[in-house]
């Protein structure tokens, strides 16, 4: 597997970011549910209001239940809702080493940026939130 120093050494660091300081293995690029820690995927659900207007709505579902949603015909604008026993959303994870362990990854609202900080690799991924 690739390590953080192999992948990020020599790369330019974006504003409000710190490239990884520790050489750790990069974990597989999968998203984990913040509630039950199972793998999740985003699916695009085709929706049609029955009057010639169709669109696609994205929804997070557990990977082992990709059909875990229902379409509710509410008025002229149907809604898509997950059928899981809880709300499915991705856990906060490190952009560099892909860990989503809550003991290692934290989301911080700093003075001028929102940042995801990782103690596993020492990286910080942030973006400016205004002047």
Biggest beta sheet summary: 3 strands, antiparallel
Average of per-residue pLDDT values: 91
Helix content: under 10%
Oligomer: single chain
Polypeptide structure, described:
This protein is 4% helix and 34% strand. With 131 residues, it is mostly beta strands. The strands form 3 sheets. It has a 3-stranded antiparallel beta sheet with strand order 1-2-3, with no helix packed on it. Strand 1 (31-32) and strand 2 form a beta hairpin. The chain is elongated, with a radius of gyration of 19 Å.
Question: Which helices and strands occur, and which strands form pairs?
Answer:
Layout: H1 4-8, E1 31-32, E2 39-48, E3 54-62, E4 69-72, E5 79-82, E6 105-109, E7 113-118, E8 124-128
Antiparallel strand pairs: 1-2, 2-3, 4-5, 6-7, 7-8
Task: Summarize the entry for a quick read.
With 131 residues, the chain is mainly beta.
Keywords summarizing the entry:
131 residues, mainly beta, 4% helix, elongated
